[in-house]
Amino acid sequence: MRPERMAARLWGFTRFVLITGIGFIILYPLLRQLSAALMHPEDMYDLTVNWIPRTFTTLNFRVAWEMLDYPKAVLTTLGFALLLSTLELASTMIIGYGFARWRYPGSDLVFALVVLSIIIPPQMVMVPLFLNFRYFNPLGLLPEPGINLLGSFWPMVLMALTGTAKRGGLFIFITRNFFRGMSTSLEEAAYVDGAGHLRTFFTIMLPNAIPIAMIVFLFSFVWNWNDLFYTDLFMQGKNLLQLALMRINAQYNYPWANKAVEGTYIQLVNNAGMLLYVLPVLVLYAFLQRYFIESIEKTGLVG
After folding, report:
1. Taking all residues of the chain, what is their mean pLDDT, rounded to a whole number?
2. Inside any domain, residue 11
3. Any alpha helices (H) in 38-135, and if so which ranges?
4. C-alpha dist (Å) from residue 75 to 79, 90, 198, 242
5. Which domain holds residue 95?
6. Would you call 194 exposed, middle or buried from its count of C-beta atoms within 10 A (0-12, 13-18, 19+)?
7. Does a structural domain hold residue 23?
8. pLDDT tens across 256-271, in order?
9. 136 bridge partner residues
10. Which of these, 49, 174, 179, 209, could form a disulfide with 43 (CB 3.0-4.6 Å)?
């Protein structure tokens, strides 16, 4: 066998081992959760059971389904995530376009503050945000002490609408860079034809920004779907999946078991609930992965 052919085979085998190993590391949490979710409670005390349950059961999924009120909770969470993603997409696209095309005194400083917001942990602004929406009074126009928006969807809706929601700074940054890379010749031609700024944006720039819009929307949807910090801060008591998962430990009361067995069984129910939680996102990715990858290639985010 030629040395070149042997080297090619060796490299192919090495690449196969690396890809398989990395894939297993990525999938390990899901595989482990699936194994635990299909276990019967008795398997937890069987030392011979590690990955493959001795007794397969769907009991954990049925209990998690009922405790999460899954059909209603998944529809509520899906609708809320879609609403926030749509609002955040609209606001960050407009803001990013404004930063890309208009210069004014202090614009660089304002954009630097937007970039700075990417690295500021939300825990640093938790108290100001909480107090702002607890006593909501824009510009002091409302009578004291303002409106209490806590416990409603309004805090996160307002944050998405103003581009200050979760990862809003990142979305503004990438949309601004995308629009800066686009030629201004089409805009100038539109201005000559009498089009205004808004018409130019919606009829000329936005149709050419579909790839970046797809990326922003999908990232925003996933982050809003997985968000627990803001939902727990602003919307306690709402029937959202991420909040329902937190309430499993408090809700479940295994009738015939002592507390030690109950705690062990709750772990199995939690694993089943987490799999039900990520299932809609996995289905979404399965249908949209082609468009997502194409959008990343067209925008050059990987380059």
Report:
1. 82
2. no
3. 59-68, 70-101, 107-119, 126-134
4. 6, 23, 34, 13
5. 69-246
6. exposed
7. no
8. 444 444 556 777 888 8
9. 147
10. 49
Residue 232 has pLDDT above 60, yes or no: yes
Which DSSP state fits 50? Answer: S
Spatial separation of the C-alpha atoms in residues 38 and 31, rounded to whole Å? 11
**Residue 59 resides in a domain:** no
Q: Which amino acid is at 147?
A: I
Question: Is the per-residue pLDDT at 173 higher than 70?
Answer: yes
User: In 3-state terms, what secondary structure has residue 147?
Assistant: strand
The residues with which 56 forms a beta bridge, in sequence order, are 39
Mean pLDDT of 81-101: 91
Cα(185)–Cα(190) distance, rounded to whole angstroms? 9
pTM summary value:
0.81
Higher-scoring residue by pLDDT: 98, 51:
98
Looking up residue 93, the CATH number of its domain turns out to be: 1.10.3720.10
What letter represents residue 30's amino acid?
A: L
